[in-house]
Amino acid sequence: MANPKDELMHPVMGDKAWSESYYFNFVDPDSKVAIFTRMGWRPGDGWADGLHAVYLGGDRVAFTYGQRNIEQNLAKYNGDLSVGHLTLGCEAPFDHWTIQYDGPAQDIADAAILLERSKLRPEGWFTPAHLNMKLDFKALYPPHYAADGDRGHFEQTGEVTGDIKIGDQVFTVRGHGVRDKSWGPRDWGAGASGSGSPANTVVGDITDNITEDGPSPFVNWFSMNFGADLAMGGSCFRHPDGQLRGSGWIQIDGKTEDLADVTITSEYKAASILHKSIVLTGRTTSGKPIHVNGRVLTICPTKIPMPGGATFVNEGLAEFECDGKVGYGISEHWHRVSK
Questions:
Q1: Counting C-beta atoms within 10 Å of the first and last residue's C-beta, which end of the chain has fewer, N or C?
Q2: pLDDT < 70: residue spans in the chain
Q3: What is the C-alpha separation between 84 and 71, in angstroms, rounded?
Q4: Superfamily of domain 202-338
């Protein structure tokens, strides 16, 4: 059962990798303008960060990132979910949230440049811009819990409306999306702490060791909405046999079921870790087979520095097809890169 206390900060359990995070995404199906937002609180590291990106059509992305110093007791930040120029507001638990940003952004014509090391990017790789937006996320159904208690995770579908202004352009948007909340140890080098399996590591240059079979992400996370009556989400981890398998959830006509036996296969751009399509299969707990074809519209790579290298979380804005219905969402692939 949904517990309103889970919308607030949880007691920190002592693990240095402890993280409390808030995530939102949505896609306007008409304009293809979309966002993903993640605010993470890491008391063991002494900081919180906010990553906020807006897909603006084609390969264009507005990218923002901010940090703030925090104390060990996260409860003091309830009602103060602000990092940099990003602010999240809980207007009503499990019902209504706001996502606001008012500040500088990098207006990037082709987000693939984010795969390149900063010092190697050409002059003018982004245009400085001012981003101002306020979105309302209003839940459609109760949250689906993958875990709860001291360490938990839930996801929830919703309708998103609002305005996004960058420079002189204004986009009035309406679409569907997913939010999630997680608390517990989080290791970006191996997924949620204690889960997943070692990845096939890309060493040196990002295209080194990409075989004829393509790259080997160690996590694939997915979130997709086909309007108000069909949505699904979940994640797959790479297993010792090389296959990405996992689980998730699906909502059909207001009923939520678990998804089991989920597998994801991907196609990639030549000599690249940027995926261009996915095929997802699985089944509901009631026995219905699920088959989804996904076409990636654009990708916003995000780089997380790690000891000895980095993890690239490639956030793919995608169009999906399932049972003759067309939907939109995020196909997220995690790749480990070593120095």
A1: N
A2: 189-213, 339
A3: 16
A4: AttH-like domain (2.40.370.10)
Cα 52 to Cα 50: distance, rounded to the nearest angstrom:
6
| Domains of the chain, residue spans | 18-185, 202-338
Reported as type and span, the H/E element at residue 64 is strand 61-69
Q: Contact, 313 vs 331, CB < 8 A?
A: no
Q: Tokens 């998804």 sit at which residue?
A: 259
Q: How far is the C-alpha of 224 from the C-alpha of 58, rounded, in Å?
A: 19
Spatial neighbors of 54 by CB under 8 A, at least 6 apart, are 33, 34, 35, 61, 62, 105, 131, 133, 164, 166
Q: What CATH number labels 18-185?
A: 2.40.370
Number of other CB atoms surrounding residue 208 within 10 Å: 10
What Cα–Cα distance (Å) separates residue 120 from each residue in 67, 113, 115, 127, 302?
24, 10, 10, 17, 16
In this chain, the answer to whether the domains covering 18-185 and 202-338 adopt an identical fold is: yes
Q: What is the pLDDT of residues 176-217, one digit of tens each?
A: 999 999 999 987 765 433 333 333 333 344 554 455 667 889
Check residue 23 and give its pLDDT.
98
Give residue 307's pLDDT: 82
Rounded Cα distance, 43 and 23, in Å: 18
Contact 167, 129 (CB under 8 A): yes
User: Residues 55, 35: contact at Cβ < 8 Å?
Assistant: yes
